Amino acid sequence: MDLQELYQELILDHNRQPRNRGVLECGGHEADGYNPLCGDRVHVTVELDGDVIKDIRFEGSGCAISTASASIMSEAVKGKTLTEAKYLFEQFITLVTEGPEAVDDPEDLGKLAAFAGVGKYPARVKCATLAWHTLTSALKGEEDTVTTE
């Protein structure tokens, strides 16, 4: 199995069995995201302990890329400081918009590297980044729904 097939399986697995799906009742930080291009919707709730993401959940409906991205994002940022999460956000955006060669250190991305091929399909970039933009909005306390337009 080559790396591309492995990444495809990882995305399909996280779409079929999303991790951290649901809502944190006492999360404290939350936001909604919407991709009008394809109809993806996501709601992200985050619980902080100081500047550490103690817990995170998401719910919504969307394509396989959107759901898998939210699932893998939630695993990647849980337990990270806000600074570390911001760095992952920036590196992920770079990965899907500019390619793996533009990322500081691809190994820092872990499972997020599975989205390296998304950049070949510009409409799918919005699917992959929706949850990330929604997380950022939640952490900033913004109330407006995040859109990819």
Features:
alpha+beta, globular, 149 residues, single chain, four-stranded mixed β-sheet, 4 helices
Rounded to the nearest angstrom, the radius of gyration is: 14 Å
Q: Report the top-level CATH class.
A: Alpha Beta
Count of strand segments? 4
Structural category is alpha+beta
Low-confidence stretches: none
Provide the CATH topology.
Sufe protein. Chain: A
Helix share, percent: 40-55%
Outline type: globular
What does this structure look like?
It contains four helices and four strands, in the order αβββαααβ. The longest helix is centred in the last third of the chain and has 19 residues, at 122-140. It is globular, with a radius of gyration of 14 Å. By secondary structure, it is of the alpha+beta class. α2 (64-77) crosses α4.
